[in-house]
Design a protein that fits this description.
Blueprint (H helix, E strand, L loop, with lengths): L1 H14 L4 H9 L9 H15 L3 H19 L9 H20 L3 H14 L7 H16 L25 E3 L3 H9 L5 E4 L15 H8 L3 E6 L9 E6 H10 L2 H4 L6 E6 L1 H4 L1 H4 L19 E7 L4 E5 L4 E8 L2 E6 L40 E5 L4 E4 L4 E6 L3 E8 L1
Parallel strand pairs: 1-2
Antiparallel strand pairs: 2-11, 3-4, 3-5, 5-6, 6-13, 7-12, 8-11, 8-13, 9-10, 9-12
Helix pairs in contact: 1-7, 2-3, 3-4, 3-5, 4-5, 5-6, 5-7, 6-7
Bound molecules: 2-oxoglutaric acid (AKG).
The site of 2-oxoglutaric acid has 11 residues, from strand 8, strand 12 and strand 13.
């Protein structure tokens, strides 16, 4: 069994282009002397050597040693200060660990190692983790016992009556019209019929069942808690299968706004799972860029009824695509920030202290004066949120959304 795992998974992975020997050479090309990591690079090379020699249990031990050292570096101080070289070494340690585990036939553990490597590591030549993950996913799919599929028609809250100013709905405006009337004037707009051709909304319609079938064994970061401003809020790594089971098993009225709410939020899912990338398309509006950075940042937001993103703003243009279910979205202009009581700390300065739908007007009296737009986005809607616009979002059902941020 172990040997079969090695030949069909490990060798298949390296048949795609890179040999184990060149992988070891790649590790030696990382400029580890600048971070004093020569011993770690040597451990990773020995780990790869053990996989080549068909002694994966030694490979596993060595890889674990390297992973532990890199993990400590990744988790000391601020993330932005962590050297990319440590993150590359984390990637290489993840590759040698994933290969060792696959060689022992531990395919699920190997896939989890690939995912954590993709989430925490930095890119290295050869795309090994992506390719290994794709091979493992296919292999696991072949061998999996079919699981009961979740029901997307979970009960959700009552219909919502919007207040505030309505947001204009425009069918596929031209780029020129969008730029002049909305982008430049900083006016939100709901664009309709611009995503009808996405496979996610037509030929491969997204649902909890589809996500489970496409990527159930993949590990993703999940927010746990009612809202990110709560003391008890935390993040966890879990497989898409467990995440979806947690959504499907709890009745929606119990999940909504509770400390147990699970939310796959602001995650670059399509970087991690390129196979889902072809289900969506970058809206043309995102090419109206003022900077050289032409590729938008694409984030997925997937969760049950009742997820809440507290009132906050981001520095980007945002076209927010609703793919499954409904969300209530409330917007405030950046011109009214003084009425919205941002948190004092630098970390949370883009977030309001006010609970938008239940404001404490004794503490935050000026909030009542702030004009706002409100809408419920439906599948197929693209909401344009201008940069620095405050936005509050609550899902009214199981919901899948994709945001495109650009500058
Ligand atoms: O959908 C959500 O919960 C929040 C979306 C958001 O904040 C964004 O797209 O910037």
């Amino acid at each position: 069994m172990a040997h079969q795992g090695f030949s069909t998974v490990v060798e298949q992975c390296f048949d795609v282009g890179h040999s184990l020997a060149t992988l070891s050479e790649d590790v030696s090309s990382v400029d580890v002397s600048t971070i004093g990591a020569e011993p770690v690079a040597a451990i990773i090379q020995s780990a790869i050597g053990s996989v080549v020699d068909r002694t994966p249990s030694t490979g596993k031990q060595l890889s674990q040693g390297a992973l532990d050292i890199c993990w400590e570096k990744l988790n000391s101080g601020y993330w932005r200060d962590v050297s990319v070289l440590w993150r590359q070494l984390y990637t290489y340690s993840s590759i040698s660990m994933a290969l060792s585990l696959a060689a022992e036939g531990l395919l699920k553990e190997s896939l989890k190692t690939c995912d954590v490597g993709l989430l925490m590591g930095a890119p290295v030549p050869g795309n090994h983790l992506h390719r290994l993950a794709a091979i493992l996913t296919n292999r696991l799919r072949e061998t999996s016992v079919s699981d009961s599929l979740p029901n997307d028609k979970l009960p959700c809250g009552p219909d919502f009556q919007c207040g505030g100013l309505p947001i204009e709905r425009v069918q596929c405006p031209s780029l020129l019209m969008f730029e002049e009337k909305y982008m430049r004037q900083k006016v939100p707009v709901i664009i309709t019929d611009a995503t009808n051709h996405w496979p996610a909304l037509s030929s491969r319609p997204w649902s909890l069942a589809y996500l489970k079938q496409a990527a159930g064994d993949r590990t993703v970061p999940i927010e746990v808690g009612a809202r990110y401003t709560d003391q008890t809020w935390s993040q966890a790594l879990m497989t898409i299968n467990s995440f979806i089971d947690s959504i499907s098993e709890a009745p929606s009225e119990e999940v909504a706004g509770k400390s147990s709410t699970h939310y796959l939020a602001q995650h670059q899912l399509f970087e991690q799972l390129p196979e889902l990338r072809s289900d969506i398309c970058v809206p043309d509006y995102c090419c109206l860029s003022e900077s050289d950075d032409t590729e938008p940042v694409v984030n997925a937001w997937i969760g049950p009824c009742g997820t809440v993103s507290p009132l906050h703003h981001d520095p980007y243009h945002n076209v927010f695509a609703q793919v499954v279910g409904k969300k209530l979205i409330r917007l405030y202009s950046s011109a009214h920030s003084d009425l919205l009581y941002p948190h004092d700390s630098a970390m949370m300065h883009n977030t309001s202290q006010v609970d938008c739908e239940n404001p404490d007007l004794q503490r935050f009296p000026k909030f009542a004066e702030a004009p706002f737009w409100e809408c419920v986005v439906q599948p197929g809607d693209l909401l344009y949120i201008p940069p620095k616009f405050w936005h509050y979002v609550r899902s009214l059902s199981v919901s899948f959304s994709v945001s495109f941020w650009w500058t």
